[in-house]
Amino acid sequence: MTPIYSSYRGRLAPTPSGLLHAGHARTFLAVWRRVREESGTLVFRVEDIDRERCRPEFEVAAREDLAWLGIDWDEGGGREGDFGPYRQSDRGELHRQVWLQLIRDGWVYPADFSRKEILRHQPRRESDGGILFPDALREAHESGQTAEPNPAINWRFRVPDGEIIEFEDGEKGRQRYVAGKDFGDFLVWRKAGGPSYELAVVADDIAMKITEVVRGEDLLLSTARQLLLYRALGAVAPGFRHVPLVRDRAGVRLSKTARSVAIRELRDEGWSPAQILAWPDRGDQS
Fold first, then answer.
1. Which candidate, 2, 193, 203, 243, has a CA 20 to 30 Å from the CA of 214?
2. pLDDT tens digits, one per residue of 37-52
3. Is 256 considered catalytic here?
């Protein structure tokens, strides 16, 4: 579906679980360029629903690093706007209401199983390395339930097995996934009492009227899941553009888990913003 909003709105959405590296810089530059090309509005939204890993100092560092690179924004990140709050951890009530809507409409069901239990029933692997949730563990859930559901267990979205999910990606072209084969029933609510990434990002992009999502190509499969959520919520999906991941000269993708060299470390070593944004043309640190 084509977005129907009257003006372009994009978003920078760092997760403050570590310092930004050159891969983040290149992806966020792609976001910034698209918004400026379209004379649109760029939203800075902090995706900090992982309370255990996210820390305020990394949010501050992200803002400082992006500003130093010359990547500015129009809402959030210290700038007021009409679509706040701009931290996902402050948007819990919205996420809860979206989760309840999915329950009322019969799209999700409680599935409080451990990884070990899931593997015992169905050790098949997804194309992205995840686990396909087995049909044997699906539980019946009546549409329109009015009783207060239990937020302290996992809830999953029931995918339409065999349905082909297609979308046109602005960078990668036509994409095609098969529900139940390329991905299975996915988490929308975690037993810790909060939304999954898929639910939070869709709920917030709808509420903030985001018209195009620009992000790394590692999230292509997530887009197929998220399109099902948009449809379930009766919302128009934004456009999508998935840019190539940045790798070092050995072909290893830059990441926080791999402890890739942070932007501020390169800055301290004398790198300029232009050199960092041109990675890995200068050096192969990771």
1. 193
2. 999 999 999 999 988 8
3. yes
